[in-house]
Amino acid sequence: MKKLIFMIAAVLMTALFSFSAFADQNGGGAGTGDIMPEFIAELTDGTTATLSDLLKENDLVVLNIFATWCGPCEMEFPEMEKSYQAHKDRMVILSLSGDPDDTVEMISDYKASHGLSFPMGRAGEVMDHISIDGFPTTFFLTSDGKVVFLKVGAFVQENEFEEKVTTLLSSDYDGTPLPEEKAKPITLYLLLLLPVILVVRIIGRWLLFRKAGIPGWQSLIPFLSTMKEYDLCWDGRIGLAARLLGAAAVVLRMLGHGGILSSALLFAEFLIGVPQGMKLAKVFGKGKGTGVLLVIFNRIGRLCLGLSRAKYLGKESPDHHCPL
User: Any idea what DSSP says for residue 323?
Assistant: First the structure.
């Protein structure tokens, strides 16, 4: 069993640290070697950016398509900002959100909170001229409007973005497009992880249910298994509510309505899970350390608790019940 736990943990950590693009939007338009069509983009400062003007004023225009909820996007921005400060006399970065749910106000707040100085705004009509497989996607354009490099996925290696900028601004660069780079979509990792996550959840809850005298097969049924787990230490109705919040967030993302609402729903589910994890540890005779493990590592934490020698002590009365 220990080997199984280490194997599962290795798979999960590999996926967590594989920084790649995430999006579900596709269009048709400019790719490597093509001329980017003219466009006008709405910026956070209330002005607009016109591609032709940017091309006249800069030797290199970097068009970055991101989303405020995109983790890999957030990771690449610090280096992009550093590079922009070093080359802004010859280069401009125009970072536009391709998520229609991201408002100008949201992007403005995002820009301020991340300390970014280059122009940012909403992609809008720009999405009609490009094709993207994920967030972030970055187009590098020379002053004639030609796409000379296309990156799908984040620049996460140290100096990776700076090296591309330096190459394209070099006096030795002859204008030949560089090979396109494309990260593996995070959705691929998620698809590979789904069976593992499902098995870990079922085994973990099965073991906990058996310790509490509950039929293990109930861990196989979605929603019911969540209710039963919450019943061990709190109230099943709270568990059902939390699970429905998570399910609603997933549905919103599948329908292309991610953004702040789905993130808020997932955060609400997490907040409910914090006291639940602490209570679950307590009814199995464990302390706050185990509770934190259950909150942070969730399914792996439950599997470890199920495999341990911990015994179910029973639900402490009144304060564990739902006040409804």
Answer: -
Residue 184 binned pLDDT confidence (cut-offs 50, 70, 90): low
What pLDDT, on the 0 to 100 scale, is given for residue 31? 82
Decide if 150 contacts 41 (C-beta within 8 A). no
**Cα–Cα distance for residue pair 309/288, rounded to 1 Å:** 17
- Residues 316, 317, 323, 324, CA torsion sign: positive
Q: What is the pTM of this model?
A: 0.58
For the chain, the farthest-separated pair of C-alpha atoms sits apart, in whole angstroms, at 75
Which residue segments constitute the domains of the chain, with CATH numbers given? 2-15+186-320 (no CATH), 21-182 (3.40.30.10)
Question: How far is 71 from 217, CA to CA, in rounded Å?
Answer: 36
Per-residue tokens: 294: 């259950």
pLDDT digits 0-9 by tens, 157-183: 889 999 999 999 999 999 999 998 887
CA angle in degrees (0–180, nearest 5) for 8-10-16: 105
